[in-house]
Design brief:
single chain; mainly alpha; MetI-like fold; two-stranded antiparallel ribbon; globular
Length: 286
């Protein structure tokens, strides 16, 4: 409990530091020791943090009953659900690839470079292709829904960290323990579940954090690229059109996207806490 409170305190301190740096930069007005810094600190480009927070309580549009805070919360929740689906799909795909690469060295040599290379594909160009391919698929009696294309792109950015991190973890099992299980004629499935997966947890959790961030980024970029309404990505694009007349409104959507990323990171932290509950203290310390 004390360790968790300490981590929470560090998170609050980090947020306070970001706010202090933002307001400090505005205080020096974009100048330092007589030098003009690249980013202007006027209210058009860098509104005060208090202005952004106050803007959340204003109506989203003139005559609208819904506040900006409600719109940002609804968009963040919508994108969170899609990003979570993408994260789960990415974890499943990444885990299967990691198990395959650990089992077959030829698969590792053939697949691992492709996994790494896949993360260099420009999502803006890839998203319309996914939507076009998905529109031709038939899911039994159902039809391909537009949000599924966003989830696929989200999973595309989420699977690689799990595949690479879990592969390293599966290969980190103690050789003596592995030799002992082989001497007892343990089947490969038992070795995987009883030895390799527990040994891979310290590698898997950081990979999940990267995957969670990738899933959020993929969902937001896909919403913008595909013009998918309802999520925080599309909301950011809509609010950016008012950047000239109402710059603080743009930052409210960015605050929602940041909160979405933090929520995904907290979710991974909960998974880590549950998975680490029965692990030995020396393993946790390492």
């Amino acid at each position: 409990m004390l360790d968790r409170l300490r981590r929470l305190g560090y998170a609050v301190l980090g947020l306070a530091l970001v706010v202090a740096l933002w307001e400090g930069y505005k205080a020096i007005d974009g100048q330092l020791l007589g030098w003009e810094l690249p980013l202007k600190a006027d209210d058009q480009r860098m509104p005060h943090v208090t202005t952004m927070v106050e803007r959340l309580a204003d109506p989203e549009r003139r005559g609208s009953d819904r506040s900006i805070a409600a719109a940002v919360a609804a968009g963040s929740w919508y994108t969170f659900q899609i990003a979570l689906a993408g994260l789960l799909g990415g974890v499943v795909i990444g885990a299967l690839l990691a198990a395959l690469m650990q089992r077959l060295k030829v698969a590792e040599r053939a697949v691992l470079p492709l996994v790494v290379m896949s993360q260099t594909v420009p999502i803006v160009a890839f998203a319309p292709l996914v939507a076009a391919w998905g529109g031709r698929l038939k899911l039994g009696s159902g039809e391909w829904q537009p949000w599924m294309s966003v989830a696929v792109i989200s999973a595309f950015l989420a699977f690689a960290p799990v595949a690479v991190g879990l592969l390293r973890g599966l290969q980190a099992a103690p050789p003596a323990a592995e030799e002992l299980m082989r001497s007892m004629a343990a089947p490969p499935r038992t070795v995987l579940w009883k030895l390799r997966l527990p040994a891979a947890l310290p590698y898997l959790v950081p990979a999940l954090r990267l995957s969670a961030a990738g899933a959020v980024v993929g969902a937001i970029v896909a919403e913008i690229s595909l013009g998918r309404s309802g999520g925080i990505g599309r909301l950011t694009l809509e609010y950016s059109r008012a950047a000239t007349s109402d710059p603080a409104k743009v930052y409210t959507a960015l605050m929602g996207a940041a909160a979405l990323g933090i929520t995904m990171a907290l979710l991974v932290g909960v998974v880590d806490a549950v998975a680490s509950r029965n692990r030995p203290q020396e393993a946790l310390a390492s």
